[in-house]
Amino acid sequence: MFTGIVESIGHIRALTPKGGDVRVYVETGKLDLSDVKLGDSIAVNGVCLTAVELPGDGFWADVSRETLARTGFVDLKPGSRVNLEKALTPSSRLGGHLVSGHVDGVGEVVGREENARAVQFTLRAPNELAKYIAHKGSITVDGTSLTVNAVNGAEFELTIVPHTLAETIMVDYRPGRKVNLEVDLLARYLERLLLGDKAAEPKASGLTEGFLAEHGYLKG
After folding, report:
1. CATH number for region 105-197
2. Looking at domain 8-86, which of 3.30.830.10, 2.40.30.20, 2.30.30.60, 1.10.10.10 is its CATH number?
3. CB burial class (10 A; 0-12, 13-18, 19+) of residue 85?
4. Predicted model pTM
5. pLDDT higher than 60, residue 60
6. C-alpha distances in Å from residue 18, one per residue of 25, 44, 63, 215
7. In this predicted model, what pLDDT tens digit does every residue of 91-126 receive, in sequence order?
8. What residue ranges do the domains of the chain occupy?
9. Would I find Calcium among this entry's keywords (predicted)?
10. Where is pLDDT greater, at 187 or 215?
11. Are 8-86 and 105-197 in the same CATH fold?
């Protein structure tokens, strides 16, 4: 679990395709790795990854086909800036909200306006996620815990203060930018409970061979 409070901005150093999925090397910048062990979790743009190697200035992790299909990882390349957060410990402050590190979908930045010293962003979520986004509710954008200021259909507004702009990759956001979205956990569990007996009915997966081939992770 995470809080959505970004601890460091890192960089992607390498992305290596491996048998249909990817191994990624993340340089972690100012993130303190002294208490990180092999097998520990680190959120990268809101995606929970497991450290499989710790060379000193970063970590290697494996990115599954499921993660490639459901997140913006397919758009990352060497040099891309990423938000980083280590997993919660029993003594951690819960400064944001409870975040699982399991991305629900990919949204898009559709507007950016100056608002005094802050910046107001308008983002569009996938239609299927719109029902989870509420005025003054919580949402995680690329691993950053944020409060929704307004909602209009599948679009929602965020007002980002200077500190958050300086400490996250949101300063780089421009219209057209794709972002990882994780909706509030409580909304997800409530929906599941309301399904009642229908929760036991199977649902088709959105992961396809065509998607992976299109993004270069399968060879024809």
Report:
1. 2.40.30.20
2. 2.40.30.20
3. buried
4. 0.85
5. yes
6. 13, 19, 10, 13
7. 666 666 778 889 999 999 999 999 999 999 999 999
8. 8-86, 105-197
9. no
10. 187
11. yes
200 φ/ψ sector (left φ>0, alpha ψ -120 to 50, else beta): alpha
Q: What is the DSSP code string of 21-39?
A: EEEEEEE-TT---TT--TT
Sign of CA dihedral 34, 35, 39, 44: negative
Q: Could you tell me how far CA 188 lies from the centroid of its own chain? A: 16
* 188-193: average pLDDT: 79
The fraction of the chain above a pLDDT of 90, given in percent, is 69
Quick one: pLDDT band at residue 142, thresholds 50, 70, 90?
very high
**Spatial separation of the C-alpha atoms in residues 85 and 101, rounded to whole Å:** 10
Question: H or E element: which one contains 191?
Answer: helix 185-195
Helix (H, G, I), strand (E, B) or coil at 134: coil
